[in-house]
């Protein structure tokens, strides 16, 4: 009943705090006989790692992954796949000044209230570092999906008031924002660098497109494909909302506009974002998530101590001025896990 | 692995199609000894029923609920609580003309592709009637929550291009839109009535506020309170997106603006919408969902038959021009189930 | 976290007390497109029903099953299959004398202590009538399994001190004990009839053989096929133990005797009972369960009232002198559910 | 749907093969704030380790446990507790001769057939070494239970044809069989040492007694306390059966003998073994499991190769002549996990 597992037929269970011994994941339900290398996993983890540009945190985390079980002679065995990333030597003294304070926007207060105890080194379990296990598990899922013709692509759609106005998937990995519009990306980067210099941070919108999904995926009435994707995305720390297809714009639309009519060639529009009745239509699945501005900023803010005494706080250190580019591999990983899980579930139903 | 159950410690499993024998729910994990009457349940079901105003469907559904188990001498026993609502006599002939056609915006096509078989009477399992079981299970949860000081209130925030500009909870049940602003409600109703006369429908935004939740609710890292609420809401047929607190507006905000700073009196702002790190902060929980325009419209639309032949279709009948007011009790029910489930889960952790 | 569901890919949730409105089951994960009739289900239910012989209770229960959802035009749709059996008019007055007493061997005391409230009419949720839902769900599973070549056969192996000494499956349904040895069955029946006349009851051993299971079924390390069958069997009211293959006799065996060696024709022996390492070997699966003597007897026994006052009690009425023959369809149903569930789970793993 | 997790409110997920990088466990649902040391865990692991006497394998396994997460400043934090035991350097060459052969009584054949791939070093995932994770997770559960007054004690009741005839809990840890009867233990040890010299092995019966459990534990109708204990025990490699209270002897008993009657002082007898209707009665919980003779023996046996060719095999090496004493800590661990899980589940129900 605690909530550290996700998925049913492809089930992941993550563990680890930012300053404990390690973070990692157990994947249960792995298809046996899949060729997999550490490099396949590491490649995705490297996209998530720190220090990739001026606007992301220059902290260096040791993100080297190890297999501890479930792989034999280069292939998955179908038994639990355990992947682990050791933490570097903890320097808890660096966190001494926040030990007694709740950082605004952070989960310090809520963890304290929930558990009655808090690992105050870094953000403990609420650290973004926990997502390394998700990305590792997602990398394997993604590889299996790719062989089934399913492709998942996430990118920054909007930040710093700039929205992309063109779409070239080739440039996504070539700019620090992971935006598919090089011109917009440069402008975004310029503004966020300035915000960073002002010791502040910025939110944004990440969009995800999934192609190659056959019609029929998703399990009504509760485990609808969009419901599960929503849960998966909202389980990522900084995400505060999600919308599919036309999303919130549908509030101002009429049925005659929003309904996706059909011709002999298939759906004429895709306002639904590839999911109707919680089941994939075969069209591209499209959703957007909103990413809140990074909570850690160097600006002075008001807060209270554990004893409730008012204090000022500056979350000193090297933070991501915009977390969108580093959330993208996590979005892709979680989407991969949801899809593979549902492909397996659909298969079981038809047996 | 099919997906007709929701919740863990307060778990509901719904069954039923719109034109089968019945719809209903089994609730497992009911607190024993809770006083409950059929009227407590019926009252919530009546808010969901058809024929409440000009803009909702005038179809008459027999929404009378029966207890079949789990209640003895007016109290819950802790064993599975089964509640059933019989369907009226099916008139499948009324659906003969859509038997071979996929209605635009409906789940006809996706159900056919998923299951290879489709109950074409009404919308089968994809019918809004399925939510009666949810509302029944939610009514009990809501009663238990109320005794714990938790109150849940949903209402129409926007439709037909009109947004509420005042907030009076007393008027919500007094206008057909269930909007907390009487003046806005009248304008919404006027426009939607006109849209209905034009044989069309309209989307909208429903907002939900939950007060009285202690800090500490929600199970990181996957079953975060917002993640579970998101799944619960996206599992409702017409919902295409959700946002918490500032929601999508956070994309254009800075950390120094969005972070909820604290004083000795508690949080100074509530931009997070009452949830940080997936755990309740003790502030009011606020989220908004977008409701797509009703798919069933009398206007002529393009579609194809099961054989892929192009055809025109008019989904004749008496439809909801805006489904927001009837979705509100379902939103409240699902929120109740999520909250009670998490209160029980939190309790188990601390044992 | 309450425990009224069983299975994952073929999941059943039962509801109902003996004297509430109804008992029944929701099956989730049904293969769509399977031809099924009420008669297919009723046939198995009739094997479980009361009044089949002198040694079983002559009470008449209305065991007529109804489909409420999940079946359309004679085929399963893949949506939740709900089956219900209404209870006859409750005559709670018949139970007035046990309202305040705990019947020895019954769950009256434990239910009271667990829930703090007890439906004292009949045995409430602890009634054998609850198994009707299991038998109904098992009947569908069994039909699907039969098409896959899997056959499940349970029978009385021992009761009243008589053990079968021959095995003819044809005679099982032709004697009141459901024993595969007509001569033994007659002797069993003679002795148990006498025990019944003495207002007492008798235990026994039921054996189950499952053929046609391919090697590879079962999910290590916790959901081993024998572990799941053990749980399924021990979840049946009167069952107090289970053993596979040589079972408890293995305590006195050497490895060289117990190990099933292999030749080019396959396993030479089947001491393991068809399961090694929690996975089916392809040999016949064999297990035995011990059934305690029926708790309800007319003999005078010592007990206490709810207030702890000592009293004498006679559980008057018409009881099963030996419950083995009526447990057999439940054993077969639960075994069917376990096997189909695992076939689906195995399929999902290999996707 | 793979089966490497056990429990709901206190949930363990194990990973690891005997010759991969490590074995271990993630525990989810840990009560926060519990004082725990590595020594608390190590102490239980040491009881399971190899090389404790002549009749157990003299192989030396590195059973040193490490915390990787979920513990901070000597206390549990409520986040996933990960415990890991690294494997010593694999010497896969030692297993070259069995690489192509199925060892009789081992899971080699069934794993090959299930997964289509097999880690042939040691017994891979089917190795007894997997249980180290269970024992580690059980050690924490046991500590929490002890504080609640619950005590769990398992011991060898029978092996080598010798049954205990006295019961002194003090001597259990003082003889290599872990039997509570010193005289019987000596005789067991003498016979098994001889069997070991004959390159053979021996089965046995382990009994478990649990005291201090309040009435009311267990979740009807499927997650009955005995059903869950049965699953837990049958999930242990060498276990082939389980019985509660009078167990299989109940087959020959009458209701008037088996029923546990009550006086003002409580139950007069405990034939049920402390569980009625799947719920604890408050009496001592008693069950027995049968342990098959160790499959690995040095004696020559018949088997086939992967290609189905007949061959002779001797599973050379240093094996346990009787596995009972090493299974005992695993039995206690799994019983602890079942009980703590159910105490948490019961708590959640009453909220």
Automatic annotation (TrEMBL), chains A, B, C, D:
Signal peptide: none
Catalytic activity: 5-O-(1-carboxyvinyl)-3-phosphoshikimate = chorismate + phosphate
Keywords tagged on the record: Amino-acid biosynthesis, Aromatic amino acid biosynthesis, FAD, Flavoprotein, FMN, Lyase, NADP
Required co-factors: FMNH2
EC assignment: 4.2.3.5
Co-factor binding details: Reduced FMN (FMNH(2)).
Gene3D superfamilies cross-referenced by the UniProt entry: Chorismate synthase AroC (3.60.150.10)
Binding locations of NADP(+): 48
Pathway linked to the protein: Metabolic intermediate biosynthesis; chorismate biosynthesis; chorismate from D-erythrose 4-phosphate and phosphoenolpyruvate: step 7/7
Cellular component, GO annotation: cytosol
Pfam families: Chorismate_synt
SUPFAM superfamilies referenced in this protein's UniProt entry, alphabetically: Chorismate synthase, AroC
Matches recorded under NCBIfam families: aroC, PRK05382.1
Subunit structure: Homotetramer.
Summary of the function given for this chain in its UniProt record: This reaction introduces a second double bond into the aromatic ring system.
Name of this protein: Chorismate synthase
Organism: Salinispira pacifica
Gene from which this protein is expressed: aroC
């Amino acid at each position: 009943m605690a909530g550290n597992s996700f998925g049913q037929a492809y089930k992941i269970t993550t563990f680890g705090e930012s300053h404990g011994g390690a973070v990692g994941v157990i994947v249960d339900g792995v298809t046996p006989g899949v060729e997999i290398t550490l490099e396949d996993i590491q490649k995705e983890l490297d996209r998530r790692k720190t220090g990739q540009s001026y606007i992301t945190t220059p902290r260096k985390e040791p993100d080297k992954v190890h297999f501890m079980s479930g792989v034999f002679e280069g292939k998955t065995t179908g038994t639990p796949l355990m992947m682990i990333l050791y933490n570097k030597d903890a320097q808890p003294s660096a966190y001494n000044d926040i030990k007694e304070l709740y950082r605004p926007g952070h989960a310090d207060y809520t963890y304290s209230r929930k558990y009655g105890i808090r690992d105050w080194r870094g953000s403990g379990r609420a650290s973004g570092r926990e997502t390394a296990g998700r990305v590792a598990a997602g990398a394997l899922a993604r590889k299996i999906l790719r062989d089934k013709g399913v492709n998942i692509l996430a990118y920054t759609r909007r930040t710093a008031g700039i929205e992309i106005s063109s779409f070239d998937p080739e440039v996504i990995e070539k700019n620090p924002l992971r935006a598919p519009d090089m011109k917009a990306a440069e402008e975004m980067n310029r503004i966020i660098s300035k915000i960073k210099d002002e010791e502040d941070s910025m939110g944004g919108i990440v969009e995800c497109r999934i192609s190659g999904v056959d019609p029929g995926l998703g399990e009504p009435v509760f485990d609808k494909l969009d419901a599960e994707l929503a849960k998966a995305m909202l389980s990522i720390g900084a995400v505060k909302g999600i919308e599919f297809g036309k999303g919130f714009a549908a509030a101002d639309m009429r049925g005659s506009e929003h309904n996706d009519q059909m011709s002999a060639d298939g759906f004429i529009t895709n306002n639904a974002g590839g999911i109707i009745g919680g089941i994939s239509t075969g069209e591209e699945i499209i959703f957007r998530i909103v990413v809140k501005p990074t909570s850690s900023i160097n600006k002075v803010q008001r807060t209270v101590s554990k004893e409730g005494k008012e204090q000022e706080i500056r979350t000193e250190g090297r933070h991501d001025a915009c977390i969108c580019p580093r959330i993208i591999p996590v979005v892709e990983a979680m989407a991969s896990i949801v899809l593979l899980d549902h492909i397996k579930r659909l298969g079981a139903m038809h047996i």
